[in-house]
Design a protein that fits this description.
The chain has a 3-stranded mixed sheet with strand order 1-2-3, covered by helices on one side. It contains 3 helices and 3 strands; from the N terminus they run αββααβ. With 76 residues, it is an alpha+beta fold. It has a single domain, classed as 2-Layer Sandwich (GMP Synthetase, Chain A, domain 3), CATH 3.30.300. The relative contact order is 0.24.
Length: 76
């Protein structure tokens, strides 16, 4: 899942070198903290958060098959 999230994010931003994804795992849940350059944050979140919501939907659909819960946080 982390690899797919990384591919999606890197294809959205201009500065793909500054993308970092931190994974925090608990019993049945995973939290991903996504950090991008300040200039690219708007591209990742999108208008009214639609892009962020779409990214979360894709990752949550994959996590459902693995019987896990996923949370994605976009950090400055």
């Amino acid at each position: 899942m982390k690899d797919l999230l990384e591919v999606i994010i890197k294809n959205l931003v201009d500065n793909s070198d500054e993308v970092s994804i931190t994974e925090k795992t608990e019993a049945k849940s995973i939290c991903y903290e996504v950090k991008v350059a300040k200039d690219d944050m708007g591209k990742v979140i999108g208008k009214q958060g639609k892009m962020a919501k779409a990214i979360r939907s894709i990752i949550k659909a994959i996590a459902t098959k693995e019987h896990k819960k996923v949370n994605i946080e976009f950090v400055d």
